[in-house]
Amino acid sequence: MTRHRNIPARERLIFALDVPNRSEAIAWIDRLGDAVAFYKIGLELLAGGDYFAVLDELAKRGKQIFVDLKLHDVPATVAGAVRGLARRPVTFATVHCDSRAMLEAAAAARGSMRLLAVTVLTSNDRADLAALGVQGEPAEVVVQRARLARDAGIDGVVCSGADLPHLRTALGENLLTACPGIRPAGPAGDDQKRTVDVPTAFARGADYIVVGRPIRNADDPRAAAETIVAQIASAIG
Ligand code: C5P
């Protein structure tokens, strides 16, 4: 039986605010209103130049913030970046699973911000890993990397809902899990390969889900977000 942490259903939905600039970001925050309490801001917004303006706006509106910059560099550089982010009102930030030294340096610099390690991207499957010289099923690689992250003091992992059964069996319930690659209506034929729907993710022990295009491309995005929150509420009981 999967144990669910005491996190309200609405706070378990993290909306991927993958837009290029502040005006589009604000339009989405206004459009989604109270339906979304937690926002993930990533590389597209960073490259657009409005990253910290949007971060400050989210904080001003009382939203939780997930900084998804997937840090990956030598330990000292990653530690410096984590230290800078930890001075801001950020709930989660991501680092790639790399050397233990890098993960430990990140963990030591995180302050009260929590770090999630990216294990295997949900856009990568077994063949993609093999082409990179990494053998094994994605779920096995996820467990190996998640163990390394946990032992280095990282708070949780980003993984596919498809990886969760292996992960929870191997490493128990303590690691936080955030799962992208959520496709409420089944595979969408886009870049995400290892997808699950909302009830499946929570039945398998996800703490959070990250959802972008299924909300952004919906006819009524706010209603789509509300439907997902309702599905989460019924899945976690
Ligand atoms: O649009 P979609 O629902 O696929 O958005 C998923 C989001 O999660 C994107 O912002 C993507 O960068 C992020 N992500 C992911 N796989 C990971 C880590 C993050 O898809 N392993």
Supply the key terms:
237 residues, alpha/beta, TIM Barrel, 16% strand, globular, binds cytidine-5'-monophosphate
Brief summary:
The chain is 43% helix and 16% strand. By secondary structure, it is α/β, with parallel strands linked by helices.
Would you write up a description of this structure?
The protein has 237 residues and is of the alpha/beta class. The chain has an eight-stranded parallel barrel, surrounded by five helices. The two termini are 12 Å apart. It has helices at 22-32, 43-48, 51-60, 75-86, 100-108, 126-131, 138-151, 164-171, 198-203, 213-216, 221-236, and strands at residues 13-16, 38-41, 64-71, 92-96, 114-118, 156-158, 176-179, 208-211. The mean pLDDT is 95. Helix 4 packs parallel to helix 5 (100-108) and helix 7 crosses helix 8 (164-171). The structure holds cytidine-5'-monophosphate. Cytidine-5'-monophosphate (C5P) is lined by residues 16, 18, 42, 68, 118, 121-122, 158, 180-181, 192, 210-214. Cytidine-5'-monophosphate binds next to strand 8 and helix 10.
